[in-house]
Design goal:
Length: 162
């Protein structure tokens, strides 16, 4: 009788250990969350996207990323280093745009511009960017849509990308 009780106890302990180990094993085998700044294009058209942010050396704008319809693209890889990011996008097929009140410099072709003042004098164009407060999240996702939001704001939404 004592042997049967020890065997049952050993079986229960082994089963309990296996059940408790599953979450640990799952956590170890899970891929880490990828931190980045992404833009998802919920339209059917090709969209050109530019992003602005504050770097250690000052303001930077860069573009153009081409985001096909119904796809997403990572603009900034890795954990975000700023709280605020700025976005400007143009519909390459219909000519519409997603913009905002913050003026920054852009160029006609691929660009990376330091500074946001005197755009025209430095040979650049000026565009209005929409500000996104990421709340210091490690990653963020902006979705471009055809339809305006129900509260009348621009047809762009942002989230922590989680």
């Amino acid at each position: 009788m004592e042997i049967a009780r020890r065997q049952r106890f050993h079986l229960v302990v082994t089963a309990l250990s296996a059940v408790l180990a599953l979450p640990v094993l799952a956590a170890l085998s899970a891929t880490p969350a990828h931190a980045d700044f992404r833009v998802c294009n919920a339209t059917q058209n090709l969209v050109g996207v530019a992003v602005g942010y504050r770097a250690k050396a000052g303001w930077v704008t860069e573009g153009w990323w081409h985001v096909e319809g119904s796809t997403c693209k990572t603009l900034i890889e890795g954990q975000l280093s700023s709280r605020y990011y700025y976005l400007y996008a143009e519909d390459a097929e219909r000519g519409g745009r997603w913009d905002g009140p913050v003026n920054m410099c852009v160029a006609e072709k691929e660009f990376k511009v330091s500074g946001v003042s005197d755009c025209f004098a430095r040979g650049f164009q000026r565009a209005g960017f929409q500000e996104y407060d990421t709340g210091e999240q490690a990653s963020w996702m902006v979705q471009l849509t055809d339809e305006p939001a129900t509260d009348g704001t621009a047809a762009v939404t942002g989230s922590n990308g989680q």
